[in-house]
Design brief:
The complex is a heterodimer of chains A (201) and B (529). Chain A contains two helices and nine strands. Chain A is an alpha+beta fold. Chain A has a five-stranded mixed beta sheet, with no helix packed on it. Chain A is elongated, with a radius of gyration of 31 Å. By secondary structure, chain B is an all-alpha fold. Helices cover 66% and strands 0% of the residues of chain B. The chains are: A alpha+beta (201), B mainly alpha (529). At the A-B interface, α1, α2 and β9 of A face α6, α7 and α8 of B.
Chain lengths: 201, 529
């Protein structure tokens, strides 16, 4: 075999060649060690991909990014009503593709004072002759206002069951926290209604 | 010959054996050269498959209106073109080059884990058979773009689980390849081959392998979540169930941005081998090249959201991702500077590999420049999802990554085959390619700036001329690649015999072995001074 021999005559090389079985074993152990460590990295990064899901939610909650509002009812506590400030709250309703409902806010716009409780309703009607289950996902714009938009009661907290053709008004009780940044004058609350036939949880 | 058994790589099987015979040789081989060849041939086939998808896309876009294909099939073409080119052509080509060259360049007898090497290659043909078979399934193949954004990707028909499985297989193959590269570089370097003496191709591949190990599992996680959202009633990305489709984009691009460096760092390594050879000067700034590569790799984990500036992000977030993205231009600039400085006052000759390498430096820099433009948030709102983006990433991937692969093949082909390249044919291929690629992609910048959206089979009338030019360039570039095929086959079959040195100015251990490189090399490790 025509193998080039570059400086193979070094004394070190000769000594190493004497005990090849030890060499082989050492090298194999070294390879196994590298593989084992790298496989741990692979497993950790696979887990990290999944860990991003809860981390993402935590990050959105802590920073108030993304317009996500709390999924739970806020606890009512007495707050000073700031009569000097008026905020416009707009209500939007969207149906996700393939959700067979009529879905609309009964009032599309309200003038509110921070710190005061308000109640409004959305109207939804099942357009089919079947039992339907749906759920609304809320979103607030501007995103940074989301954590100052507190809902004490909301149909979005739970699944809504509709009998065939049933029509129902669904309440939202909310308040705007007085700590809402002063540059915000209009807050939009949007609901997207989803049909729950394919969704677990 | 007792010293032959120094390495487990050769001791694990019979190191005295030559190549096997027939199909069994290729199915059962654990030889790094055989596996490198398999990877490269597979990549070449995928390059033509993905290229034919691209030509169908360009043919449809030759004029406005719908001529050749229906829109749903067009969407499948754009999706599969990307998946095939990224995971089937560019990445396996680099792994093939790594298999051939890394052991030769560091003085190792073989890769550290030869059997895993065989396995990581042979997964690929099955993965791509699975992926391409989706074209014939009810509802067609994936059509929501290679980024697989939900909810659109979840509307894929029966093909969906097959696509996910294919992506998992590609990921497993890449991860095994990366583990093998790292183990080889860490454990099998010849005595005296310290890390900072390694050739740059080896260095860039080492860093690339770490990127692969870090992000391919994240992609696997993301597509697994898509799969469970569709079939197992989870709601990771389903807003109706409390999930968020935007989260997919974050996870995907956390993989996706390092992925684009996976496709370019080995290219940097190749260019850093070729330019010193033909400039007949040592590489300018070797250490800075290594540090620049490492910093590009580290920064790549902090810039993912620049792919999604328009998705809705707070200003501070956009500013962060903008500045970090622009910061990457600094180490990249160091590299381009070093290549130019290597050529400066060199005794340059322009053989085919050097032509591709010089074209790489110029055209990759154009792609890098449009990348800096895209990094600017206010400007990105105009460019986002237009042909400007298409022009940008094709400039870095085609005259970038693909040219570097061709340069590498032309550079090392005499070593692999023992035959000199037919220079006339090589240069003809180069000039047709370089003209074709610019006619193909340069007008797409203007189309994007004028507002033509990507991934749409039809367009407004005012975009017609530039699209026609682009399509002409596409066919010129596409058919010129048949010359590449011809050149490779001709060089394998015959030609002037090549000596061990091959190129006058070449340095490195791979040039100390005869051409063609014997089936087993460095069974006795060389000592590097």
């Amino acid at each position: 075999m025509d193998v080039p021999r570059v400086n193979t005559q070094s004394p070190l090389r000769e000594a190493e060649a004497l005990d090849t079985s030890v060499q082989v074993a050492l090298r194999a152990a070294a390879n196994r060690r590298v593989v084992r460590r790298l496989l741990w990295v692979v497993v950790a990064m696979f887990a990290f991909g999944f860990a991003l899901a809860p981390l993402y939610d935590v990050l959105c909650q802590v920073t108030g990014l993304n317009g996500k509002t709390s999924g739970r009812a806020a606890v009512a506590r007495p707050l000073a009503v700031d009569e000097s400030r008026t905020i416009t709250v707009e209500f939007v309703a969207t149906l996700n593709a393939g959700a067979p409902w009529d879905f609309a806010p009964q009032v599309t716009r309200m003038q509110v004072h921070p710190g005061q409780y308000y109640r409004t309703t959305y109207l939804a009607r099942n357009l089919t002759d079947q039992l339907l289950v749906g759920q609304a996902a809320p979103s607030v714009t501007p995103g940074l206002a989301a954590r100052h938009f507190q809902k004490l009661e909301c149909f979005c907290f739970s699944r809504q069951e509709f009998k065939p053709g049933e029509e129902r008004t669904m309440p939202v009780v909310f308040l705007i926290d007085p700590e809402l940044p002063p540059e915000v004058h209009t807050v939009t609350l949007s609901y997207t209604f989803f049909k729950l036939d394919h969704i677990g949880g | 010959m007792s010293t032959l058994a120094t390495y487990p790589a050769t001791a694990a099987h019979d190191s005295h054996a030559g190549p096997g015979y027939g199909l069994r040789r290729w199915l059962l081989t654990t030889n790094h050269k055989d596996i490198g060849t398999l990877y490269l041939l597979f990549s070449l086939i995928m390059f033509f498959v993905g290229g034919s998808f691209a030509l169908l896309i360009r043919a449809e876009l030759f004029q406005p209106g719908l001529q050749l294909v229906d829109p749903h099939f067009f969407n499948q073409l754009t999706t599969l073109h990307a998946l095939v080119m990224i995971f089937g052509a560019v990445m396996p080509a680099f792994v093939g080059l790594a298999n051939w060259q890394i052991p030769l360049m560091i003085g190792a007898a073989d890769m550290a884990l030869p059997r895993m090497n065989n396995w990581s290659f042979w997964i690929l043909p099955f993965a791509f058979t699975l992926l391409l078979s989706t074209l014939f399934m009810p509802g067609g193949g994936p059509a929501g773009g290679w980024t697989l954004y939900p909810p659109l990707a979840l509307q894929t028909g029966q093909a969906f689980p097959y696509v996910i499985l294919a992506i998992h297989m590609m990921g497993i193959s890449s991860i095994m390849g990366a583990i093998n590269v790292i183990a080889t570089i860490f454990n099998l370097r010849a005595p005296g081959m310290t890390l900072m003496k390694m050739p740059l191709f080896v260095w860039t591949w080492l860093i690339t392998a770490f990127l692969l190990i870090a992000v391919m599992p994240v992609l696997a996680g993301a597509v697994t979540m898509l799969l469970t959202d569709k079939f197992f009633l989870t709601s990771f990305f389903n807003a109706g169930g409390g999930g968020d489709p935007v989260m997919f984009q974050h996870i995907f691009w956390f993989f996706g941005h390092p992925e684009v460096y996976i496709m370019i760092l080995p290219a940097f390594g190749i260019i850093s081998q070729i330019i010193p050879t033909f400039a007949r000067k040592p590489l300018f700034g070797y250490a800075s090249m290594v540090y620049a590569t490492a910093s590009i790799a580290l920064l790549s984990f902090l810039v993912w959201a620049h792919h999604m500036f328009t998705v809705g992000m707070p200003l501070r977030g956009e500013l962060f991702f903008m500045y970090v993205t622009m910061l990457i231009a600094v180490p990249t600039g160091v590299k381009v500077f070093n290549w130019v400085a290597t050529m400066w006052r060199g005794a340059m000759t322009f053989e085919t590999p050097m032509l591709f390498a010089v074209a790489f430096v110029i055209l990759f820099t154009i792609g890098g420049l449009s990348g800096v433009m895209l990094a600017m948030v206010p400007a990105d709102y105009q460019y986002h999802d237009t042909y400007f983006v298409v022009a940008h990433f094709h400039y870095v991937l085609v005259p970038g990554a693909v040219f570097s692969i061709m340069a590498a093949v032309y550079y090392w082909l005499p070593k692999w085959t023992g035959h000199q390249l037919n220079e006339r044919m090589g240069r003809l291929h180069f000039w047709l390619s370089v003209v074709g690629v610019n006619v193909l992609f340069f007008p797409q910048h203007f189309l994007g700036l004028a507002g033509m959206p990507r991934r749409i089979p039809d367009y407004a009338l005012q975009f017609t001329e530039f699209n026609m030019i682009s399509t002409v360039g596409a066919f010129l570039f596409g058919f010129s690649q048949l010359l590449f095929l011809y050149n490779v086959i001709q060089t394998i079959r015959g030609g002037q015999p090549a000596d061990a040195q091959v190129w006058e100015g070449a340095h490195g251990l791979e040039w100390t072995v005869p051409s063609p490189a014997p089936y087993h090399t460095f069974t006795t490790p060389p000592v590097v001074d």
